[in-house]
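Hi V.,

Quick status before I head out on leave. The structure for the redesign project is tokenized and pasted below; the design run finished overnight.
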């Protein structure tokens, strides 16, 4: 077995030494904040003691033909990102996490993913950063792709440690680090309803779009819709806040929000400045109820309205990041970019969160804008683009598509996109650079009005 030492530093700076594949496999959920199912995870190591640095996660590409280019891109992204944040990694640890497919067992899953592990090792080696360990985690067991000794790494794999029984678990509990379940569970809280449950909601979105688009196209109407959207969103937050906590919180929240109410707020949030105003609900009790609302609205973006979920998902990611839940923020922002890869606000927040920036910079700017409106007695409706000119974006009628970059061009791998828009006002001033996600979103229905990202 490869004997090596990696350390992670909890909040109290206590160093925990991990030895070998077993302890690395046990540490993965604490490094990520959740159990990363169906994922490639790469973690940078720094210094002679192998201090954990930047980490990167991506869903395992379903087609083996994608593995080589994805491996090259992941290696380049982790190494260059580490160089920007602190220093070039001295080594990398790779995890491949996937449950067995139908008819497979864990060992067969490990063997099926072996070429991907080799591609990742080769890609990192080509950049002069060795892969110190590569592990497959499947069906409650782990395998090492780097250790040839069957005495410690047998063909049938080794069982994972029982939850909460290891040194890493004790250290994480002492440091207040929580594991929030599996990635699948976290995404389920933000995933649109299925066809049968979402039929009524889709009809409500169609009806609301038919009414709201004509109003938004009117100069004065846009400001009125913005004010109504924010007022209704505030009322829904207060309603959610009065509801008692329960084990079925998401289902209870869904019952408290009518389909027409959800449709009105979802379509209203497609206006960029209205969304930016909603981003100000980011602290204290406001943040708690706002996050519940954004999650509920993301679940209501059903059928052809799936791309509209980029707005509530981005707001959910922002509130999570602002309140210290980085794993939750990454999941929500990743889903926002899956729904709309070109959504600028999500791109910038995802980049900032991944690079470990402090959200207080953006919080200060949003507080400042809110305070300025309070001092000048602004009424909210006019602040959200009431004259129809402040956005500088067209409004799409139901059933039409706005002018977009051709899909073939959008699918090309792109390193970075300048942050030239005005997401959240403050983000644009920082002129951050955000990675453009590859691929085209599923379910490209574009009804209702969307005016800016």
């Amino acid at each position: 077995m490869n004997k090596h030492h990696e350390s992670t530093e909890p909040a109290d700076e206590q160093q925990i030494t991990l030895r070998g594949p077993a302890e690395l496999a046990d540490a993965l959920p604490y490094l990520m904040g959740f159990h990363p199912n169906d994922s490639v995870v790469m973690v940078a190591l720094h210094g002679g003691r192998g201090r954990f640095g930047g980490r990167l996660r991506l869903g395992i590409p379903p087609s083996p033909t994608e593995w080589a280019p994805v491996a090259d891109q992941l290696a380049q992204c982790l190494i260059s990102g580490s160089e920007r944040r602190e220093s070039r990694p001295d080594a990398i640890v790779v995890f491949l996490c996937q449950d067995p497919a139908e008819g497979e067992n864990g060992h067969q899953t490990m063997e099926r993913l072996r070429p991907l592990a080799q591609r990742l090792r080769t890609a990192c080696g080509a950049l002069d950063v060795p892969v110190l360990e590569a592990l497959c985690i499947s069906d409650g067991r782990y395998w090492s792709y780097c250790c040839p000794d069957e005495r410690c790494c047998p063909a049938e794999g080794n069982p994972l440690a029982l939850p909460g029984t290891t040194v890493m678990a004790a250290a994480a509990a002492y440091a207040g680090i929580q594991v929030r379940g599996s990635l699948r569970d976290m995404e389920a809280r933000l995933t649109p309803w299925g066809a049968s449950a979402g039929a009524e909601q889709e009809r409500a979105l169609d009806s609301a779009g038919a009414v709201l688009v004509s109003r938004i196209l009117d100069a004065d109407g846009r400001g009125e819709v913005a004010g109504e959207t924010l007022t209704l969103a505030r009322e829904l937050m207060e309603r959610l806040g009065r509801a008692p906590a329960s084990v079925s919180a998401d289902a209870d929240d869904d019952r408290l929000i009518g389909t027409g109410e959800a449709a009105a707020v979802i379509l209203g949030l497609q206006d960029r400045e209205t969304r930016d105003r909603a981003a100000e609900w980011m602290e204290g009790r406001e943040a708690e109820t706002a996050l519940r609302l954004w999650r509920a609205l993301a679940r209501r973006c059903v059928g052809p309205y799936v791309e509209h979920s980029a707005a509530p998902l981005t707001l959910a990611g922002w509130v999570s990041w602002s309140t210290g839940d980085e794993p939750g923020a990454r999941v929500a922002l990743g889903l926002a970019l899956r729904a709309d890869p070109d959504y600028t606000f999500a791109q910038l927040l995802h980049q900032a969160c991944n690079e470990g920036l402090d959200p207080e910079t953006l919080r200060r700017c949003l507080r400042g804008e809110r305070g300025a409106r309070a001092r000048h007695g602004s009424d909210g409706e006019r602040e959200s683009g009431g004259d129809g000119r402040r956005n500088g974006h067209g409004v799409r009628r139901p059933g039409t598509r706005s002018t977009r970059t051709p899909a073939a061009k959008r699918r090309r791998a792109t390193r970075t996109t300048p942050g030239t828009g005005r997401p959240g006002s403050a983000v644009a001033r920082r002129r951050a650079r955000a990675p453009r996600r590859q691929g085209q979103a599923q379910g490209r229905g574009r009804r209702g009005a969307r005016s800016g990202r």
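Above is the designed sequence. The first strand starts at residue 5 and ends at 8.

G. will cover questions while I'm gone.

Best,
W.
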